[in-house]
Amino acid sequence: MSPWNNIRHPKISTSYSPFCRRVRDQRVLQRGIDSQGKLEMMRRIQQYNSHNLPLKRGAWSPEEDQKLIAYINRHGIWNWIEIPKAAGLLRSGKSCRLRWMNYLRPDIKRGNFSMEEVETILMLHQKIGNRRCAIFKDKALDLKRTEIIPVDAPAIWSAIAAKLPGRTDNEIKNFWNTNLKKNYLKNSINIAVQAPDNPQETQTSKVESKKRKLPEIDVPLPTAPKILKSEESDGSPKLPTANFSSSFNLVNDLIINENQTIEDKVGLLELTGEQCFWCQPFSTEGQKCKVEDYGDTPTVEMWVQELLHGDACTGL
DNA sequence: AATAGAATCAACCGCCAGGGA
DNA sequence: CTCCCTGGCGGTTGATTCTAT
Question: How far is the C-alpha of A251 from the C-alpha of A262, rounded, in Å?
Answer without folding.
Answer: 10
